[in-house]
Amino acid sequence: MNAGMGGQGFLSGNGDSAVLLVTVAAVCLVAAVCLAMVALRQLAAARAAMANARFVRDLLDAGPARAMVLHADGSLELDHDLARELAVEPALPSLSALTDGAGGIEAEDVERLQAALGPALLAGNGIELALRLKGSSRLIDVRGRAAPPSLGTGATLLWVSDSSSAAAERGELAARLAGTEQALGALTQLIEAAPFPMWVRDGDLRLALVNRAFVTAVEADNVQSVVDRGIELVEGGGEASARAGAELALRDDRPIERVRPATIGGERRTLRLVDVPLPGGTVAGYAFDIQELEDARSELERYASSQRELSDRMTAGAIQFDPDRTLSFYNRPFAVLSDIEHEWLDERPEFDRLLERMRENHRLPEVRDFPEWKAERRGWFMSAEEVHEEEWMLANGDHLRVVGQPLPDGGLRIIFEDRTEQVRLASARDTLLRVRTATFDNLFEGVAVFASDGRLTLWNRRFGDFWNLDESWLSQHPRVDELVPAFASRLVNPTAAARLRELVRGATAERRAEQGRLSLADGRHFAFAAVPLPDGNALFTMIDVTDSSRIEAALRERAEALEQADQVRTDFVANMSYELRTPLTSIGGFAEMLREGYAGALSGPAKDYVAAILESVARLSRLIDDVLDLTQGAKGVVTLERERVDLAGLIRTVTVQLEPSAQAKQLRFKVQLGDGTGSITGDHRRLRESLEHVLRNAIAYTDKGEVRLVTRGDAGKVEILISDTGRGLAPEHQARVFDRFTRFGEARGETALGLGLPLTRQFIEAHGGTVQLESVEGKGTSVLITLPRASPR
Fold first, then answer.
1. C-alpha span between 284 and 281 (Å, rounded)
2. pTM of the shown model
3. Residue 374 falls within a domain, yes or no?
């Protein structure tokens, strides 16, 4: 039992030791793991450092620059590659050692480097110098500043790089920059001197720069005022504004062209604006004045329109084809001539199709082989001939003249001229010429036409017969000077032939027409006339007036005999009137004595007889006075008394005197005196007799109805209208109503002699007035007497 207990304790003691061992082992294991981890980290860091060192070394090796360190003691340590390039040792005692040997740096440049290092390091600034290598044109760039503390206190790190190519590039760039500056200056001067406005807009699309032409166009003082005030070249807002084009150019990244109106120099002009986007969001622009171009374009359009209208107004049809044989132009006359619709022609048909359509409309000549004929016309396109001309006779009788003109570009122009009327007119002209010739040859007149040089150009057969001239000689068109001797041999007075030459010259040169008579030696008489013609020629005509001359002479003798007989009759009537006055005065005197009772008292019937005698004596006296007045008027001798005549009173006196005669025939006698009747200056007796004659005629030739007298007047004249409802006069009698001793119808007394109206017209015209008669047969007659207020002396 004790033994067991002892053994249990030993086991117990061993168990604690095992635990401790395990624990220690575990701690050691953990420590080992930690150390391993640390070692691994350090190994990784070392590897990273090595990799980084190799990377840095690779960067340094691959870099364009090599390093050298200038220590505080003045010694110099160079990169092996740099030392090899400079042909010096990697370690040098001082900077001046860079000049030793065949390689190295020029001494002057080393001194510049030493002089620059001190101040730069004291000021804490870097240096940058270009140094020259000895015996070479190469340059190196040296850039330096204080080295990091790891390289030593007071050390300076210098980086050296080969700048030979960079220097060359810099030189080239400098040259290019100088050229660019020069070109920019020239461009700036060119822009400034440009005759058209130019401008540049900034990122906000405001004007940043303008040229002198812009300033002049907007009538500003200078460029600055334009930029400050933002004066735009064109007016308007929205899409028409000046900035709208710049906005669109920036948005689409392309140049924008616009045409806008602007006011420049007080004139409205048309400008073409161009906005060009530039890098950086700016926009440049320029403007061209295209007013003349627009005017020219408008003029060209008007010209084209007028040419089109002119071609449409032409009588000839015209078409034109492009090189591909499609119709490019036609005018309206062609559409009418070809009987083709405009819509079909507007579709630009091909040449063959057009010919086929014209053939369908019977507007082509009938040919046996149409395809061959069409191919021949198609050959006009490439023909070497300048013009092809043909005459087309159509089935309906139309006649066309066709002219084809090949164009230089391979096209073809064809002109159609309708000569139908010309052909018909030519035929009609030939017919007219034949008719004219036949007419001329059958005229009773002799006709000859002389040219302006006096040469005979046209004549008829009768002209040659009148002068007995040979036709073959006339066919040689002799001059009038050659014809004069032939004329002279046929005339009664040979010297009169020279006058014919003067007549031709006057008609051609002086455009003077003349006429006259010629007497031929054979007893014939001719009337001639020389007339200028519109074409400068002269027409000479002759007509045989032998018979008419004889008749004219007989008529002249008869007229002279009639005049003498009329004069004898007038003288006889005048003498008889004077001779009748003496016995008539005696009869009237003795009758008055019997009436007064000088021969004793008369019985009732005797007194009536004496009264009848006195009345007949008075009427006969009036007739004799009328006859004497009429004969004196025929001789042109009418003597008037000039006195103031009250027309109203005169008319009342005459109407009262004649009213019984009207009442005896149961006629209405109406008198209407207007307010303007007044008075005139004239012969009272002759005016009274004139009114009496007209009223007596009206009463005598009116069986029923009325006789009316109406007056009206103004400041210059008086009109007296006497009308009746009598039988009137036939039209053929009205022209002779004022002739002496002419009467129509049945009337008695003085009216029957036909003296009233002739005497009335004679007296009224002597007063400066007029007498007008209007009559309608079966309806009556009206006589209008017009008298001036003051009669002529």
1. 10
2. 0.33
3. yes
